[in-house]
Amino acid sequence: MTKFPISFLALLFIASLTKAADVLVSTPQELKSAVAKAKPGDVILLKNKVWNDVQLVVSGKGTKEKPIWVKPENGDKVQISGKSNLKIGGEFIIIKGLHFKSGYSPKDHVVNFRIDNDNLANNCRITQFAIEDFSQPERFKGDSWVTLWGKNNRVDHCTFTNKLNAGPVIIAELNDERSQQNYHSIDSNYFNGRQRFGSNGGETIRIGVSRYSLTASKTQIVHNLFERCNGEVEIVSIKSGENNISFNTFVECEGSLVLRHGSKNVVQGNLFLGNNKPFTGGVRVINPGHHVFDNVFKDLKGTAFRSPLAVMNGVPNSLINRYYQVVDAKIERNTFINCEPSLFGTGKDAERTLSPQSVIFSKNLLVQPVKALYVDENKDGGIAIKDNALQGDLPTQEGFVNKKTTNVTINGISFPYLADYGAPLKKMKFVQKKDVGASWYQQEIKAVNTQPKIVKISAKESNSIQRAIAKLSDGDIIELTDTGFYSVDDEIIVDKSITIRAAAELKSKPILVNGSSKTLPAFITIDNGATLKVSGIAFKGAYGSGGDVRCGIRSTELPMNKPYKAFIDRCEFYDYNEGSFAGFKGSKSTLADSLVITNSLFRNISGTGINLAEERDDKGIYGAEYTVVKNCVFTNILGSAINVYRGGNDESTLGPFVTIENCTINEVDNREQGSALRLLGAQYARVLHTNFVNSGQGGRSLEFREFRWDDILVDHCNFYQSGKVDTYYNKALGKQIFEIKPEFVNIKEFNFNLKDGSALSSKTKAAGGVGASL
């Protein structure tokens, strides 16, 4: 019989007691208890199922050598759905493989690195996560998908897909010293798109807030891929000091990496690929002491705040949430390829009057720059431009020398290269998609309906339209087969992408009317994220003894987080008999990606023809990104033909974009101080080839409220016995403006085509004519 020393047996016994354990859990309560009891090195396994409506709490204490693990029972992931979230507290915990999908957090953030104010997470990590389709149903209800507290936490190899509601995808909070100088790492993640939010609050990452911006965060954001992150102007918003934002790749992002507050941040080795897409930006610099070097900016077409490089003017005696002066910044050894010019003195206006000072721009390489090598709004010597290289067709300026480059290929992309200027490309690697994000994640590809179904509905089947829609798939078509009245008893709700059209062979339009005694909010209401195409239909707001209809078409008043689209062609809207009624209305808190109205007639309306002015809080919010109205007639309207409103002085968004072409505005808004067209806050507006007749006589034909950088133009228009064009900077009017009495074919039959050979027709024909032709 073999005898073991007592000491050896004791060691075996102790080892058995300290061996790491695997614990399988299937409920939030079991998870919370298991982690709380876990010893360093223990592994908590999440049962392989869909965890629905769960608030998970993970709080324990591992060690650096033996962290506590929480991961799926088997496979790469476990799905978290419904009203769910995760709170992490304690030390040295690693959580792996959670897939948040088809839900939202009922309160607080989706993943929060603290249990409460007394239990922050330190030295903890989430990895191989994916979060998608997990936004609040109401887009202005804010949260973040990951909020970092404590110190030395890491978010890596995660995939974040298209957050829809207010709030950044990731936030690092700095509320007290326990979370300052935190050394967090946000690395190797894939930020897979973010649609335009239409307001401030659409950042992808934010580090700090203005209140704590004089504090060092020392967070690193490295080796991430940002692809089409278009939420707002600040894709990455740095509001603290001494952070490191390096070796990331930004692809077709309509915004910039912005050093918004804080000082002494480092921006190194990033790649910004615009692919010649509009609004694609690079780096914007505010505050002192930053170092921007070894970056590559390629094919970026953003301007102003979205310039490839924007160095801003500051505000004298700036409040902490405004703009500190840029001083002692170094911008060195960057490569700019086929980009819009860098802009020094960005945002210069009556408030931002402090020019950048002691800024060094040197050893940079510019290849085929567009329009200019750079623009300096101040020209006071605050920018030291010296020893840079240029290859291109533009003439050399002081501070540049002509050079001929060679090429370096990285990840299949060819880059111009010089050993002594620009980014050190031969030493650099750029992020590839295969190296970032959750390795197991594959985005679902939605099937395209290539054979749309057509459902024909007669007038006597009017009230079956809603039932028919319920059975349709995206891309299907409802066709109205009769002329005359389609009498409906309730609003028709469109919650998918469909077409409602008149049959092609009809000689007159089907007319929607209210067949009930109750007031309807609209004939058609567009729901969250839906697309409506409607053509050849009339919408009559008052009919017989039936109840009123407030709008022909509107967006829902229910919570919305996905933009809708509406395409309206050859339609007619008339007999809306109250001042709050409209032909089309964008409801508050909803956003149209595109509203396109063509070849249509709006008449006899006591309210507004097209109402996109429900956002009245003056926070920069607006109702439609792109509004296009072409070849339409507006006549006998008490309010404005088109009312677009974006109030406040927010600078984070691009829209609204408004294009009005070949329209006729006749007898519209002749009230005292009225406006036939109100385009307040439109950042891009084109009013072209439009005929204003007997409109805006008590005030304005056209009213703008623009900022100095807004792009607005009114040209090839006729103003006959109509009000003024009211703009703040008086720069809107083009050279082809007429005041000629129009001769219409037949006003009584709403034929506002110009008579051939009439004075206005002859005068404007060569330039494309004015007014609508229906």
Automatic annotation (TrEMBL):
The keyword Electron transport does not apply. Pfam families: Chondroitinas_B (PF14592). Residues 1-20 form the signal peptide. Keywords: Receptor, Signal. This is TonB-dependent receptor. It comes from Pedobacter chitinilyticus. It comes from the Bacteria.
